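Many introductory courses stop at the sequence. We go one step further.
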Amino acid sequence: MKVGKSGLSKVLIVRWLGQISDGIFQSALASFVLFSPERQTNPVSAALAFSVVLLPYSIVGPYVGTLLDRFSRQRIIQFANYSRAANLLIIALLIRQGSTGVLLTLFVLIAFGINRLILAGLSAGLPLVVLKEKLVTANALAVTGGTIGVVLGGGIGIGAKKLFDAHLSSDVSDGFIILIACLCYLTSGLLVRRLRRFEIGPKELESSQQDAGWGEMVEGFHILRSHGDSLRGIIATAIQRGGLTSLTMMVLLLERNTYHNPNNPDAGLSGFAAMLTIAGFGIALGAFVSPFLVGRFGRHKWIRIAMVIGTPSLILYSLIPSVYTIGITAFSLAAAGQAVKVTNDALVQAKIHDEYRGRVFAFYDMAVNSAIVIGAFIAAFVLPISGNSKLLPLIIFLTYGLTSFGLLRKTTFVNRSLPTI
């Protein structure tokens, strides 16, 4: 489907290759931290693993948003990709040496922080390379292709690990997998050069004399408050992602400690990868149907519907807990979650002026990351080490229902403001 200007294909290639690289990197990291025989996985350690890579971005997020609205986004994304490649060289060396200390954690934090900067910049610049009426479709391509890229990259990483493990120790093979991701990040940085310096913005640089950081983030937040539907959509998307994180932790523990022998972490990793693949199909479906259903219902109503459309599967799993019903749940909620995400991204992009869009998407990322951490720690509090729980799916079910019928109720979640572009 044609979605507009020629720069879109360049943005998509950079995003997709970068997220394939993310999948390769994350598979090696998961293997090293969560699926190693000598490192027993429990809810608290898994929650800490989620939070340690996400919370720091919430601190630097305001400054990231300011940079994206002040300087060439193309230059920032190019430099960030090169920096990420260099950072992974250090991580590969540390993992090869079996390091699990503060130094490894620090460089992993840097890697994930750079990743969020890149994704926020690409999302902020997307409206400049696509026709406004095609934003939902463009986001479906960008976000969904990227998410599938993460799943594909994870599969590549797992396949490479099995190949390397036949000849190398586990830690050394994880290090080599990260080197593959490093090369992909370097290639992604080179591909950014195909974009012109200000092709993805910012269009206006009058704010360059303002103070950077939280002051400008607050200003961007005030702009967002004047578009209440966008703010409510961001909060709803964050809540949806928090619930998905809780479910992901449950699946991780089930695959690691219940559906497979805990002493055979490779089987648990393969089972977890299979569940992620099932979720990937759901993601593709949610993105595919959203442009058509937005045309039928409108963005606001479709977000409200998508928030709850997958929740019956949570009740199904609570009544009949099994590997099959958890697969159905993963597929359903991934489809619904992607529908919420791509539609709300388009809603925010269409409402917010380019001058503030970088800051708004930085706030968007901060809200989602914070919700992911909260979801992880709720799961850590509720879940046993086996992962078997009927309570957690019910909590997610009630939270999604309250969000759809409360926060997104028809009388408040409506298009009352005019677009600023």
